[in-house]
Amino acid sequence: MSLSANEKTALFETLRRNDGAHFKLDQDQIIKQYTQLLYAANSIQWGLIALFLLLGLMAAPLAFDNSINQKLNIFWLLGVLLGAHFVSLGLWVLSFFAGQHRHSYLRTTMTAGLKRGAKWMQIPNIIVEAFIQIRFANTCGKWFLSRLMHSMWGAYLIGGLVSALFFLLTHQVHFIWETTLLTEQSFATLTQFFSIVPAALGLTVPTLQDISQSRLDQAAQPEAMRRMWAVWVLGCVLIYGVFIRLALAGLSHLYWLTTTRKRIKTVISDINRQTIHHTTIIDPDTLTKENDEPSNTPLKRVTHLPLNETYYLFEWTKPIPLALAATRYSDTINSAHDQQQYLRSSEPSNMIIDSTVSPDRGSLRFLKQANTTCQTYYMIGSPFQKDWQTALLKEGVLANNILELVE
Amino acid sequence: MAISLLIVGHANTGKTSLIRTLMRDQQFGAIDNRSGTTRHVERIDLIIDKKPILHLIDTPGFEDSIGLWQTRKYEAQAHESGHNWLSYAANAPELTLHFEQEQKILKQLSNCDIILYVIDLRYGPLGKYLDEIDILTCANKPIVPILNFCHVQPNYAREWQQCLAERQLHAHVRFDTVAFFFSDERKLYQTLQSLMPDHYDQLNNLIKRREFDAEQRLKKAQHALMHMLVNSATYQLPCRSAKPQPSDIQQFEDHIRSLEQHFVAHCLDIYTFQTSDVVLRGLAINGSQWQQDIFDADTLKNWGIQTTTVAATGAAIGASIDILSAGLTLGTATTLGALIGASWQTGQSFKSSIINKLRNRAILATGSATLITLLYRGAELINHLHHRGHATQQAFTIEDAKPPTKEEIARYSQLFKKLAQRTEWNQEDTSQELPNHSLIKQLQEEIIRLNDRD
Q1: What is the pLDDT of residues A289-317, one digit of tens each?
Q2: Domain range spanning residue B46?
Q3: Number of domains in chain A
Q4: Does residue B209 sit within a domain?
Q5: Chain B residue closest in CA terms to A85
Q6: Domain G, which positions (chain B) (predicted)?
Q7: What is the ipTM metric for this complex?
């Protein structure tokens, strides 16, 4: 049994959706186990159909056993062969149009049975879940169950028809009818009603005279009448039983095929509709990043600044720190122009650095140049204090000249 | 043909984060608070319906734009046009020693359609940032400033907007790679539309697709929450005695917690986040002994509807049994089977309580308080994930959500009380559709209301 390419794609996509990144099974293994499950499910269906065929083969002879002196009640026989079928059909129609078929007990039982069977076959539960979702969930499941039910009943009726045919080929029976409550007229009307479709299909159907002559208390039937009743009974079973069930089974199969294919296509079109992305490195990093060991020396903390010194705020856009209020605060160094101006000055000064921002190459280049005139570097803020300390030490700043200013 | 967007900016302003958020891909690139995390140029192609729509090019950050811009004033370059200087600076071997990282950016300038310049609004406009813009201007390509971290307060949005306006950059886009809103992303694409009118339809399709994807993610997450709540509300655990033992309670609580954990994992998968992105704290389970509310008119009415449904399956079961025993009784027995089937479903909810009552055993079920908590936590998680940028590094903690009002509690309690009667709706397979029932619709409306409110 081979899977279509679409079903394979839908299977992998369903597994991916259900289990996300955790799903790690080998693809060939998945297909093998899924196919095994499919084979097992099909075998169970065929097994059930065969069982119902067998039951049908057994049911008709049991009904014929009821005949007394080779006299067979026509409507009793029809009732046995078609009664249960009509009741079941009526209930199926009701449940089908009630729209809640999907929550039926049968479905739950079948799903549970499938899971138990898969466990016995050592097939992972995720594959069973995917199988159910692709072939059995929602509308697919509704038509799947309808097909199975009609096929089973179809098989049962075919079995009954075949065994009835065989019985009538090998036995001579008189077809009679009897009633206590109904009138002869009612019986005739009922029989003629059942005869409409067989007559339209060209079968010989009983006339009013035939019906009248077949009453229990009438004389023995001629051979032609017996044959006519036998054909009529078999025709009724064929038309009202077998044909209806096979037609519904076929219809359900078509709908199941359509909905399953639609479901598979939906999964596939979802894949195609997906928004995906690919990445490519187009200019790789060729330099090895230097990971400098961070300095372990804790910075000396100060809360006040010496008053008679000059201070610059380096790359500073925040409000001016309170600690600078009483000092000779000069200016900010926020641009290339500020940097040039600072470097042109030879006056000793101090630098206040915002250490909530990570140091970058440009800042460090300037601070290295400024080191000739800058006496002390004060750090404000903690996230990148160690990075600044390490970088400044690397640029030749003395450890004692780096302090933490606590506000 | 795909539009090529070059993502540039100072080091550590969130260029990689922007791409992660736009692509909903947490795995793209590397993110760190320190400068110089991205040291290579990487292109990410956004493909929709098998067609490439966007090329996003991630670049290393500028670190020394002041130094680089000063080379413009070299005697040999002083009289060259900006474009010529850019060609020189991108390839000059003498600049590689100090500006290798910047050269990687400059080399890409000629290949892109639009430059997205990422600005970290938490910091004011320093000279080095403005020099970066001056350098980029030399490429003669449209520049769209992306104002990142726009939801952080206080920020320097006004100062930046003024600086950008002075440089004739009026069309900027506000964005936040941590607190993500789809409207920001839409604004970005709309800005691109205005800059590239030839690609208007292509970008329009992209906007529609992104909107559709966002809606689908929300719907899927809400559906998962509904499943979790229905399964929690309809779960019953028969105890081993009339009084629940600690082991029974533990088993019950573990089951409810596992349902919530499964829901969280599902939501993370829908929104393509990692397990580490959410911290799930223990839920205080309010397990209560369960009592059938047989007097609830709505419950009984709906059981009446169910009777019709199950009758057919009962007939199938009856047929298979009766045919084996006696063919002559087939019709009667099948009808009887249908009747048994009908009462099966009707009595399903009662069955376990009656049997356990006779056996003097308690049944555990989830109390309304727990279910309301699950509802609130679930809705809050969905709301968070819906607006969580894929660059966010801080884990979201699901704590007990803000308390509902008295009216809401009454409404939710009533809803969950009715749901609890529907034990037949308890299903392991969350891919199955929930019943088309007024209670489910009501639950859905409550979830949507909570998400809309947030």
Answers
A1: 666 666 677 888 998 888 888 899 999 98
A2: 3-195
A3: 2
A4: no
A5: B331
A6: 6-148
A7: 0.73
